[in-house]
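Data deposition worksheet. Section B asks for the primary sequence of the deposited chain exactly as it was used as input, without tags or linkers unless they were present during the calculation. Section C holds the resulting structure in token form. Section D is free text for depositor observations; keep each observation to a single sentence. Incomplete worksheets are returned to the depositor.
Section A, Depositor: J.P.
Section B:
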Amino acid sequence: MGSMFRSEEMALCQLFIQPEAAYNSVSELGECGCAQFRDLNTDVNAFQRKFVNQVRRCDELERKLRYIEAELRRDNVAVPESLAEAPKAPNARETIELENILEKTENEVLELSQNAVNLKSNYLELCELKHVLEKAAAFFTEQEGVNGTDSLTQALINEDVGSQSVTIRGRLGFVAGVVTRERVPAFERMLWRISRGNVFLRQTDLQEPLRDPSTGNDIHKTVFVAFFQGEQLKSRVKKVCVGFHASLYHCPSVYSERQEILAGVQTRIEDLNLVLNQTHDHKHRVLQNVASQLHTWMVMVRKMKAVYHTLNMFNMDVTKKCLIGECWVPTRDLASVQKALAEGGRTSGSSIPSFLNVIETPENPPTFNRTNKFTRGFQILIDSYGVASYREVNPGLYTVITFPFLFAVMFGDVGHGIIMTAFGAFMVLQEKKFAKKKLSEIWTIIFGGRYIILLMGLFSMYTGMIYNDMFSKSLNLFGSSWKASYNYSTVMENGELTLNPSDTKIYTSAPYPFGLDPVWQVATNKIIFLNSYKMKLSIIFGVIHMVFGISLSVINHLHFQRTMKIFMEFLPQILFLLLLFAYMVVMMFIKWVLYDPTGSTKYSPGCAPSVLILFINMMLFKSTPPQEGCDEFMFEGQGQLQMALVLVALLCIPVMLFGAPLLHLVSSRRSAVYASGNGDVSPDVELQQLPTEPAGPAAGAPDDHGAELSELLIYQGIHTVEYVLSTVSHTASYLRLWALSLAHAQLSEVLWSMVLHMGLSWDSYVGGVVLFVAFGAWAMFTIAILVLMEGLSAFLHTLRLHWVEFMSKFYVGLGYPFQPFSFKSILETTEEPTEEE
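Section C:
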């Protein structure tokens, strides 16, 4: 958890590796996953780097693997998704063996596939010829002759059996074939146009689709016979058939000849079916043997390619006997990197060991916050706003608690919290099962935030108990502090009755053990009471949250040795917030404590002043006349105290505005005197100057050491005005806690009264049916509207409160993430695109 508080210390390391041990060493570093390499060959073209040929070999192996995988999917052969233990990157000998295996496997699968396509093409032609012979009889005649010759041919034919087109009396001929069904209308129109209506076309659709031999898709075709007259028209008809990719087949006009050919075709189809089945079984067995090794081969090739890509970032020394690389490494993992280098040298058999050298650099290191499966989701929320600057305070640690709590303030309901907790607990308990599945993009995001959802549900149950709200109904766990002293007739004759809290017989004055008294659920002024209660709570939580955010800036100032910033920025900022808005929170507590129904007239509820009116009058230096018998203020001397608080708060503004520029001016002059040797000034003055990195949320701040005083004044003025105005706007922004909480409770009550209560108002057996339907509608609307839509709305508002209102007080977020060379992350990112292909 220490690295969650602040990013880990990073070291820029220089690696010196022998060429023969470079591959194995980088492979071990990829398994370790704790080094982010820098490209030392940025001026070298990608095709001119040292290991470009090895990368091309890996690309060729990937192509072969993709082809084999495509064949596996085409034949519906199951591929194991993952392995118990991923293999390491292959060495030189294993690479050659892998290339030979993949070459042999690809050729075998390619040959089997090509043979299967050829056999399927022959099968398709035979099926088409069979359909042409069967359908052609209906095109020639409607009645068969006695001697087996068609009546049409008896009248007209002078046949030439050996030719595809039959010449009849008057030079009449025909062609028969098969064309794709969607091309038939255009085919018919084209024949009509080229012949000017002198082609007679007969056609019929095939009921069963045929299978495309290449793709395996179903294709619908139509059998046709085109009758024409003359050799010139015959040539045109054939050209049209070729243009529309129609298949022409020999079809005799004599019935006996068609039957003879049909019998031979059916025999060949049966034999071809047997051969096709045997070919498919053999190919399936080959692919099954390949499927068990496919994932292993893919992992090995991807690791090998990643290693060579990383080696292309290395630089060769002048003697060309050593590879030099630079990488960022967390200081805690330096021993792991040295161990990986030693292991790589040992496995490669190198006699000269590789070594690591930590070098100094003025560059800003990457930011690395070590997380686990619980804190990763919260850290992603912070990094979505901006990666923390190097060694800056990380808000992710505090977000683990503050995020679900502020969400629960808006989503407080025991019932809805139980639903969300159950969903989050289900994903947490089944996380190993879900982690192995290929989820959609949305479900991947939801599964990544499973612990956030679980905590949001648990906190919602807690705040629901505080509000005493469960599906818009209260839980009477501890009874009630209120008792009705009216008799039965009075209660029955009056629609509304007032309970006097000053009467000890009605109100015991004892605080409720936990949460709200359930009697408020039936009170007519429930909305007025909860309105005031939740609004004050939202302001209290908001001020505490902002004070905590400003306090975290002190840790940044101390760590970066910006001591004077504590006095010139932090103190005036925290005083401005405490003297104004924290004082308003104090007035809320004073009002809750002092004013009581059993107290004197001066401190009765009717004399309680409005905290908002008091705050406005304090800021405007005005007063409001109180009611008769009441005081304007809550205690003696409050008016003078408020005036002093406002004056001190106003004095904080010029300190924020001119403090940093004047400090910079004085320190610059002292540094100049010290540099010229005309004065004895301590070098510690350098620590008092403004930092080189920006210390506020506004990007683009001028460099504090080289900026002109006027530019620094402009920047500081913008920063001061932004802080003063944002203090007011951010405090008001926390009222969204009150607004969404009230809206959530009212929506829940509307669903109860207008949907579920309708089923409870019926009698007899009809009421059971109505209640069953009403409960289904109520449950559906509860999950869809109150849990999903309201939950998403509360989540987004909570995210805004953290990104803007909380983190802007101390967080810069100008860093860049630490992205180490890790086989695990590479395989995770490349696996999904492969699946989509």
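Section D:
The radius of gyration is 42 Å.
The mean pLDDT is 85.
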